[in-house]
Amino acid sequence: xxxxxxxxxxxxxxxxxxxxxxxxxxxxxxxxxxxxxxxxxxxxxxxxxxxxxxxxxxxxxxxxxxxxxxxxxxxxxxxxxxxxxxxxxxxxxxxxxxxxxxxxxxxxxxxxxxxxxxxxxxxxxxxxxxxxxxxxxxxxxxxxxxxxxxxxxxxxxxxxxxxxxxxxxxxxxxxxxxxxxxxxxxxxxxxxxxxxxxxxxxxxxxxxxxxxxxxxxxxxxxxxxxxxxxxxxxxx
Length: 236
Ligand code: URA
Hints:
Structural Genomics Hypothetical 15.5 Kd Protein In mrcA-pckA Intergenic Region, Chain A, Alpha-Beta Plaits, four-stranded antiparallel β-sheet, 7 helices, 22% helix, elongated, binds uracil
């Protein structure tokens, strides 16, 4: 595979940028600068570095995105912007999709991948993958919500939620909620079942992976090897 193709498919740089970088000696193959970005490499065997960064080229790509409000967690929508449009064009070609959904107005941690099997397993109710959210509410949450959440909140439609953990801020107008399931509008409906209303919702961790605090809203980065291992462990 051509080096410039590999680099562009990883979403690191366009082919043109790779060509320039190669000329400047910024691309190393097995430790040696390669001046021509059209050189072929074997992604399985060769080590490729771009501007000092090792490129882990694999069949699957795993990305963390800090979702801004206003984006739909989908790959296509006829009216609204989708989260995958926040990825560079090169990466969009690799057909990543979001692992689970966040509402359009929800912000924060979203994992995207093209590893369909892993995503499917992580989302299956059997796997009880933990999702942690920070929320704020219209009014202070009523007394006793901690035990209501722990016992399992009953939603307006009668659905009995699994046990969840809520840790409130001192003013009780917000806090953290940890769920092991992912029903449609679940946090909003749980808070509504406590006669209150969510005014802000952010996912702050998924499957034990926290949202990277250095990742600005609307930006993305590759998951680290450690984070990918964590996902695989949770999917076991
Ligand atoms: N719960 C919600 O209500 N919305 C989300 O986006 C995620 C969890």
